[in-house]
Fold this sequence. Notes:
Layout: H1 2-30, H2 33-38, E1 43-47, E2 53-56, H3 58-64, H4 68-71, H5 83-100, E3 102-111, E4 117-128, E5 134-143, H6 145-178, E6 191-197, E7 207-213, E8 219-226, H7 230-250, H8 254-268, E9 277-286, E10 293-300, E11 305-308, E12 314-317, E13 334-340, E14 345-349, H9 369-380, H10 385-399, E15 407-413, H11 418-422
Antiparallel strand pairs: 1-2, 1-5, 3-4, 4-5, 6-15, 7-8, 8-9, 9-10, 10-13, 11-12, 11-14, 14-15
Helix pairs in contact: 7-8
Amino acid sequence: MCETNDEEGGGPEGDEGPVDEQAQFSALLEDSAEDLYEHAPCGYLSTQLDGRIAKINATLLDWLGYQREDLVGRKHFSDLLTVGGRLYHETHFAPLLRMQGEISGIALELKVADGARLPVLVTSTVKTGTDGQPLLIRTTVFDARDRRAYETELLRARREADRERDRLQVLATTLQKTLLPPALVDVPGLDVAAHYHIASVDQVGGDFYDVFPLAAGTWGLFLGDVCGKGAAAAAITSLARYTLRAAAVYDPDPVAVLGNLNTVLNHEYNGDDPRFCTVVYGLLTPDPDRGGFHITLASGGHPPALLMRADGTADFLPTPGGQLIGVLPDAHIATTHVHLVPGDTLLLHTDGLTEAHTGPTAGVEDRYGDDALLDFGRALAPTTASSTISSVRDLLDAFGTGVEDDTALLAIHAPQPPSEEEQ
Length: 423
């Protein structure tokens, strides 16, 4: 009996859910294609082949602020476009549509009834009959206001980033200039030339050089390379440059000068972020008896100087065992001595030159290297300071983007007597 009552009472209730779902589904089907067309989330437009508007949905009418009778049969699609859009439509859009039968994703601007402009993306298709002849043009219009706002903001942000980059480049260039001597001093009996090759205008490099007078007719010079780039490297570069000059005045002995710099850097930067540099320091002393200059070079882990002699030979002046400046409390400083006779040229450089890439693949095997530089010096000798710097500048320029690190160059030449130079 209970089972019978359950069946009699439960049948209608059990069918109620499916009936409601069926009713809802039927209601969706009753949502006519016309209603879907009228209130679609995009604009629909049908025109005759000459562009006269034949049909337009309510969505597009709402966007434009027109009544249907204002447009249907009275206006052409091109009448809805701005002057620039109308010109583009006549010269590009319409001809391509006739040739291809479809054109999509074209950015245009429509004129709204109140005079405003509506950015849109337009896709048009030519509908053809069974005989293949074109009947009308169907156009879909997407509101691109949000996209245009995004593109405008993106463009504004890019312009601001470009301006900020320009400001940073000016700042980096200005800061870099403060770390280098504005002009090299005149050393009696020597010709001196220098160059600084910037690998990136966005960052301050850590290379530095200088030539300066000391007591009793002697002269000091140095060239170095601080690890890293940016503000931190610039701070160490400034500290190193002024420490070297001050230490040389106190005690010009090259080993003592670099030892003093090592103590300062090791004391200031021995924590979690240690900083160091490679440096070569030289003491120049004129030799009145033999002519030219006697040079003592001290190196703290720096690439060897290249000596190009008056007789056309060239070789490196090795300073093996010299340790990086600032790493250890008592760094070993390596020294070498050379007599620069008239016609000789000495080139000091940072490793941006020898570590430059010479090929399209960025690998160790395509580095310029010491051997290539030595061959370059042998082909150049005998030479002068200015000719050396000019030739190496051309070499660096030829490497292009292969030069990944800044390069400092300092060349010293003992000129021949005037009579021999003329010969």
